[in-house]
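Hello again, I could really use a second opinion on something today. I owe you a coffee for this, so here goes:
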Amino acid sequence: MADRYRPKSAIQRAREGNPSKATIKEGVIVPRAVLAEPDWKEVFQHSSVTDIERANKRCREVASLEWRRVVPILEVAAGIGEVDYSTVKDLCVCVARIDQAERDLSERGLMVTAERGTVKNGAATIAGQYRTQLARYIRELGLSPSARSAIITPEPEGDDSEIWD
């Protein structure tokens, strides 16, 4: 389903036609950059509590794997720059936290015993909230098939040769 509040990309408007003949804006061009992986120990800090440290260690590993999986694709496909650093970092944190919540759900189950009896495991709510945020990041960064169709791929730099030269 299309997001009626988000404007269509320039290429999508051109492809679908422009009956109003309004000027099609190409969008902002961000200087491309090679993003350095964050220090995940700053995000998922050391804890003296064994269970928390074990969870944080796993989060560091999952976030790092996600960074190494996604960033090379984004550098080529979307032409990400320094301004996208926080967004990509947050995407990796979301993936790590979803993994953490899902592990808790697998270990303790959907329903847990608390002071007031059997209640819903809070990790289910947390996982849902992180998934909602992850869906936004996926859409913003063009990581889903429908989002990729709206991305305008950057022109290769330094390629002055034309096919008809």
